[in-house]
Amino acid sequence: MPTGAHDRRGRATVRVGAVLALAAGVLLAACGGPGPVRLTDVAVPAPSQRASCAALIQALPASLGDGLDRRRLDPPQTSAAAFGRGPVVVSCGAAGVPASYRPDSRLSVIDDVGWFSEKVGDGMRFSTPTRSPHIVLTMPAAALEDAQPFDVLVGVAAAVRAHSRSTTA
Fold this sequence. Notes:
This protein has 4 helices and 9 strands; from the N terminus they run H-H-E-E-E-E-E-E-E-E-H-H-E. By secondary structure, the protein is an alpha+beta fold. Helix 2 crosses helix 4 (149-163). The longest helix is centred in the N-terminal third of the chain and has 23 residues, at 8-30.
C-alpha cells in the first residue's frame, strides 16, 4: 500500500486513537495530572504588598503532602500557587477580610498563624484576617479527600510567617 493510503478500517483506528489520546489528556489535566492549572479571580496585591506576596509564593514548599505536589500555573502568577488535584490554592494579597469574619471570631492558631475557616460549598476556605498581606487557602472537596486541613496549614505556615506580619498587638 503506498504511503499515505489507508483503508477505511485503518483511518477509523487512527481517528479513534487520536480521540482517546485527546480525552486521556483532558482527563489527566482535570484530575490533577502534570498539566498546568489555570486560576481565575486571583487576588491582585496592593503595590506595597507585591514583593511580600511574590516572596511568600516562591517560599511555599514543592509539596504540601501526599498527592499535593505543586502545579505549574498557566498563566504564571506571582500571588498564587496550586497544589494537587482539585487543586488546593494559596493566594496572597486579598483585599479586606471575609464577609463572615468578625473581630471576635475564633481563629485556629497553627504554628503561630491564626486562620479563619469557613465552609464554601463542599470545600473549605482558610484566611489570615489578622496578617498583612492577607493569605487565603482554599481546599475543594477533592483536596479534602486527599489531605487533612491541619497538615496543609502546617505546610504553608513557615512561608506565611516569614512573608507576612501580624496586625494584632
